[in-house]
Amino acid sequence: xxxxxxxxxxxxxxTRGLTPLLHFNLEVSNQPATELIQxxxxxxxxxxxxxxxxxxxxxxxxxxxxxxxxxxxxxxxxNRLWAHASVTVRPFSGRTETVLPVQCTYDFNVIATKYFYxxxxxxxxxxxxxxxxxxxxxxxxGLQVQQISWDKECxxxxxxxxxxxxxxxxYPESAWLPLHRDVFDxxxxxxxxxxxxxARTRHRRTMIFVDxx
Length: 213
Known about the structure:
Structural class: alpha+beta
CATH topology of the largest domain: Immunoglobulin-like
Number of domains: 2
CATH class of the largest domain: Mainly Beta
Strand content: 35-45%
Helix content: 25-40%
Radius of gyration: 23 Å
Order of helices and strands: EEEHHHEEEHEEEHHH
């Protein structure tokens, strides 16, 4: 019977996706090494291990919205769910590598975005919890199915700069600003009318709208 183990060995931002994606390079190994794994339908829950890194004074101030004042962090600084990800692993024997894609967002209503943005550098400890289904060949050649053991997990320390580079690629020199829907509708209509005007008038209208806000 298969005994799979998982280890994240690297991460890089995807520059080809239409949305922000981080590609985690995942090593999958099996014992016995001679056993043929036909496929693995792999799921992973990814948690931010917030207590497992230090924070400077500026970072502490930015994180008060998430964890409260630092004097309360003994009670409030806990692991936080970041994302769920999945991938289908190709056939292999012994070991193989695959890419686990994780979708990201620059929406500051999302806890993970606030957390990553608050950090000035260093690494983020991430806990990967694995589950899923293994399809493998039995000794007689028949196809067997087995669930991944519930205790399969690994830790990876992701450099903060990787997330920052990904956001800067998709949103260069910018950030998201939440607006009430009625304000957004008015702004959208206003800019739509402005785009049909000459360039000098467009600039003047935008200045007037901002001033009125």
